[in-house]
Design goal:
Elements (H helix, E strand, L loop, with lengths): L14 E3 L6 E3 L1 E4 L10 H13 L4 E3 L10 H14 L7 E6 L14 H15 L4 E6 L8 H13 L3 E7 L3 H14 L3 E5 L13 H8 L2 E5 L35 H16 L4 H9 L7 E4 L4 H9 L8 H12 L1
Parallel strand pairs: 3-4, 3-10, 4-5, 5-6, 6-7, 7-8, 8-9, 9-10
Antiparallel strand pairs: 1-2
Bound molecules: NADP nicotinamide-adenine-dinucleotide phosphate.
Length: 330
């Protein structure tokens, strides 16, 4: 039977303005980096997308290389879109990116005009879309003039293949430059997508300020440190978890005793405020006034439900914030 989204899907989700622009994103968005590839269950992927949309998650984040194999997450998303979500296209914000290795030779990687334009054409075919809502330069290319990379993004908007453009993993300094080039071209930089979680706070000293000054939105990826900031690894590396999979980007070596000691203390603190650690980690990244969205990943419907429920308590007492700082510093 055809999928029908629940009527109440917009009743509880919070939507936040993306920087100074008109587009609003859900406070929790879903990324398809892991668990949506050719190696994964299409039925689980389908269930994750249905439940997410029913919970008000309107934004699904992809990239050319998500899989494995590369491209297969876009293909699977395209299938689910065609079979179930086609009537809802105008209720969805679908993003893709190019910047990491995608095909052989000098034109399948980094930030040239050749690569970005060819890659978005491939992504659109894989997803069966006429346009993406947001297209990103996935990483700064130190060997291509920023003018060229930003010029390619501007061109794609003018062609109607992307409604908005963004950048990901750019330093504060390069973000400022990119935003200025895009502004001159007449295509604003909508959003930045950096990594941000309790164990990686590189955006705090400069990037957040630059984004505020430039009016650029911020959607942070891996707010749960790929699952480390949850109860997943408290006792062992469970079968089926990201760290247990050969293709998972979280490696067992990343789960050090030092990190686990902090995770256990953070877990206790979360329980004291009526949250799971995953929920506290989501709320913690969303505490910045200019934060647009927490971009989570999930391998089960229950994880999405739990993470969205974090929105029921986004406020932190001063004491809680001090305790988190003390645990992270310890
Ligand atoms: N721009 C970039 O360079 C870049 C880089 C990385 C990611 N991203 C984007 O960010 C998205 C999210 O990244 P991420 O998947 O690393 O995010 P994450 O939310 O930090 O980690 C997701 C993983 O955490 C575990 N998890 C989630 N909710 C849980 C819960 N309630 N309880 C216990 N475990 C839970 C699951 O691990 P298990 O699978 O083990 O269950 C899940 O796969 C990606 O899909 C992608 O769209 C962008």
């Amino acid at each position: 039977m055809a999928y029908q989204a629940v009527k109440e899907r917009y009743d509880h989700m919070q939507y936040r303005r993306t920087g100074r622009w008109g587009l609003k994103l859900p406070a929790v968005s879903l990324g398809l980096w892991h668990n949506f590839g050719g190696v994964d269950s299409l039925e689980t992927a389908r269930a994750l997308i249905h439940r997410s949309f029913d919970l008000g998650i309107t934004h699904f984040d992809l990239a050319n290389n998500y899989g494995p194999p590369p491209g297969s997450a876009e293909e699977n998303f395209g299938r689910i879109l065609a079979q179930d979500l086609r009537p809802y296209r105008d209720e969805l914000i679908i993003s893709s990116k190019a910047g990491y290795h995608m095909w052989a030779g000098p034109y399948g990687d980094w930030g040239s005009r050749k690569y970005l334009i060819a890659s978005l054409d491939q992504s659109l075919k894989r997803m069966g879309l006429e346009y993406v809502d947001i297209f990103y330069s996935h990483r700064m290319d130190p060997n291509t003039p920023l003018d060229e990379t930003m010029g390619a993004l501007d061109h794609l908007v003018r062609q109607g293949k992307a409604l908005y453009v963004g950048i990901s993993n750019y330093s504060a300094e390069k973000t400022r430059e990119a935003a200025q080039i895009l502004h001159q071209l007449g295509t604003p930089c909508l959003i930045h997508q950096p990594r941000y979680h309790m164990f990686d706070r590189w955006i705090e000293p400069d990037l957040l300020r630059v984004l505020g000054e430039e009016g650029i939105g911020c959607i942070v990826f891996s707010p749960l440190a790929q699952g480390l900031l949850t109860d997943r690894y408290l006792h062992e590396i469970p079968e089926g978890s990201r760290a247990s999979k050969a293709h998972g980007f979280l490696r067992p070596a990343h789960i050090t005793d030092e990190k686990l000691a902090k995770v256990r203390r953070l877990h206790d603190l979360a329980l004291a405020r009526g949250h799971s650690l995953a929920q506290m980690a989501v709320a913690w990244v969303l505490r910045h006034p200019g934060m647009t969205s927490a971009l989570i990943g999930a391998s089960s419907v229950q994880q999405v439900e739990a993470n969205v429920a974090a929105l029921n308590n986004l406020s932190f007492t001063d004491d809680e914030l001090v305790q988190i700082e003390a645990i992270l510093a310890g």
